[in-house]
Amino acid sequence: MDFFRFRVAFATDDGKNLIDRHFGDANFYEIYDFTEDGFTHLKRIENTTKDSIEREDRKHGDPEKAKKIIDLLGKEGVDFLVSRRFGPNITRVIEVFTAVVVREKKIEDVLRKFEENEIMKKLSMAKGENKRILHL
After folding, report:
1. DSSP 8-state class, residue 58
2. Is 2 helix (H, G, I), strand (E, B) or coil?
3. What are 32's strand-pairing partners?
């Protein structure tokens, strides 16, 4: 059994720091794979949904925005969404992903935290459960 095997999307604008806005407002998502051997950066994905949802007629927590984020990251096989903040659409995205709320600003610091054995176990166990929100 691959106890530690999951894919994570970090909300970022610069590839180094997590944004201090809602997850869906990031310019990019840095995608990482985690296994018992550590983590591997796979790719950076542009948040192509951002331009189509930033029109003035869109309300805060728009279900269309959530659907587009779910489609974009679902195609990449993402299990966990990591950000410092999530908006009202968190109730929609946790139907598909587990949302991980962190205090750290730097992606590198979160990666180190994820490598801690207890955190990896917690994340791996959450992958198999109903989707939810984790605070780390």
Report:
1. P
2. coil
3. 8, 41
Six-digit token string for 64: 């269309």
Q: Which amino acid is at 135?
A: H
Q: What is the DSSP string of 54-99?
A: -STTPPTT-HHHHHHHHHHHHTTT--EEEESB--TTHHHHTTTSEE
**In the chain, domain spans:** 5-135
pLDDT digits (tens, 9 = 90+) for 63-111: 788 999 999 999 999 999 999 999 999 999 999 999 999 999 999 999 9
Which burial class, exposed, middle or buried, applies to 71 when counting CB atoms under 10 A from its CB (0-12, 13-18, 19+)? exposed
pTM of full prediction above 0.90: no
In single-letter form, the type of residue at position 64 comes to: E
Q: Which fold has domain 5-135?
A: Nucleotidyltransferase; domain 5 (3.30.420)
In the three-class reduction of DSSP (H, G, I as helix; E, B as strand; rest coil), residue 131 is classed as coil
Looking at this protein, which amino acid is placed at residue 68?
K
- One-letter amino acid identity for 111? L
